[in-house]
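Dissemination and training. As part of the outreach component of the grant, students in the summer workshop were shown how a complex can be specified as a set of sequence lines and then modelled as a single object. The example used during the hands-on session is reproduced here so that future cohorts can follow it. Participants entered these lines:
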Amino acid sequence: MKHLTDEQLAEWLAGDSAEGGCAEETRRHLESCAQCHQEAMTLRDGVLRYSLAVKRQAARSQEARLAGGFAPKRALAMHRLRWAGAGALALLLTAQTAWMLKPHNAPAAPPATVSAGTKTAPVAAMGGAMNNAPDHTMSDDELLEAVNNDLSRDVPEALAPVSAITVARNKIAAASKVAANNSSAK
Amino acid sequence: MEETLLIPAMSHPGWNAAEFDDVVREHQARIYRVLWCELRDDEAAANLTQDCFLKAYRARGEFRGECSVHTWLVRIAINLARDYQRNRRQGFWRRMLGGNAKEAELAAEMAEDEAPRADRALIAREQLQQTMDAVKTLSPQQQTAFHLRYLEELPLEEIAEAMGVEIGTVKSHLSRAVHALRQQRDER
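and obtained this result:
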């Protein structure tokens, strides 16, 4: 006996009595063949259970969506927002990692060695070997004080020792003169 | 759903916005189910249901009434599901991580229904599992044909129209599905 084909069973499962012109033949075969009958019933039950289970599950899923306001666009927006947040975080971490990996040979100069408001501050901030060299620089105030000292000096620096002797000599002479005047007065 | 479909009326012929709301109300549950069967993903099914009606509304001027509104909507939904699956890069991981969860829920649901009779519950669970396993072996096109035929109970012509294939192709898909079901049963 020739059993039912997949096509015939597929049509029978869907209840296609008119399609293909073989429905009557299929029905008659199922009545006479216990094996095909058993197989057809098993297939039908399986498909029916599957169909019912899927329909019920889908309905439950949809009910949950409707209970929650069923706003798919809002859910999509949240989904995109989550991705954007993750992207921003990744970007931040990448930037931080890049900054950490970047060579930093020039540590910042200790603030204490640089006077505030000096012209040398930017130079000091450049750091490197310049910071290790002796500080030959002079602040504006120090420079100004040095100039004032030079200008206020009565005698050239080179002549200062001679001048000091002269001053001392003059002071001694003046003191002797005062002493002489005092004794003559007595 | 309705609140998110407040689209400004356009100059296309066919439904106006109010009439289209009726279309949405009438078909949204079935379209959602079609998409849910295709994707097994609540969020994706909800999003694509929305997209399906938006797309339908925009294209309503092109609808000539050559097929039913439902078939037309199913066709849009299936195309959206195909695009979604094609573009979903994480599909593999989703299937790996979450695919079995839905099936477990389905199986558990059947067990609940049959709880009073333990032996019947066992048989029911076995039959459901066999069918699920068989469906998994089918190609996406075959699965779609199977769902539209045995779940949505669409006529072959409408399935062919919705899927954009010949009726013979639909029959071939269904035969392949039945073959997979029989094979699955024989293996157990």
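The two ends of chain A are 173 Å apart (CA to CA). Students were then asked to discuss how this feature might be tested experimentally.
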